[in-house]
Write a structure and sequence with these properties.
76 residues; mainly alpha; 83% helix
Length: 76
């Protein structure tokens, strides 16, 4: 039982680090060129939407892994 829980925690931390690195390296430098004064606000809104989508997928992946680990434990 302990090994599965530690595997889940390890996977969770790996996903957090990969997701944070992805956001900093690829999403952070994105800039959309515009001629209006709303350009910095638009950049921030688009980056937030991308970050929220990635967070949704990370939580979905963690939920699937958690269910798989604990259903496997219940069967044994």
């Amino acid at each position: 039982m302990n090994t599965s829980v530690f595997a889940f925690i390890f996977t969770m931390w790996v996903l957090i680090l990969v997701g944070g690195g992805f956001l900093v390296l690829f999403i952070g430098p994105i800039s959309f060129v515009g001629t209006t004064d709303i350009n910095p606000m638009l950049n921030s809104i688009i980056k937030v939407i991308i970050a929220l989508i990635l967070i949704f997928f990370w939580v979905l992946i963690l939920t699937k892994i958690k269910n798989w680990i604990f259903q496997k434990q219940i069967k044994s």
